[in-house]
Amino acid sequence: MSKHSMTGAPVCTWVSVTDASGRTHLEARWSVAPTAHAAAA
């Protein structure tokens, strides 16, 4: 399965966010991975 790539599935990434008081915390951001076949079409 190492060569199998899932495309179009939601991907969670963690980003560092600093609030107005200067405190930093992590937030989860969900996005849809771009499909490799869309560029070839």
Name the features.
41 residues; two-stranded antiparallel sheet
**Element string (H = helix, E = strand):** EEH
Question: Helix coverage percent of residues?
Answer: 10-25%
Shape: rod-shaped
**Which regions contain 5 or more consecutive residues with pLDDT less than 50?**
none
> Total strand count, please?
2
Distance between the termini: 25 Å
For the largest beta sheet, what order do the strands appear in spatially?
1-2
Strand content: 35-45%
Major sheet summary line: 2 strands, antiparallel
Overall pLDDT: 80
Q: Tally the helices: what do you get?
A: 1
Based on CA atoms alone, the radius of gyration comes out at 16 Å
Class derived from helix and strand content: mainly beta
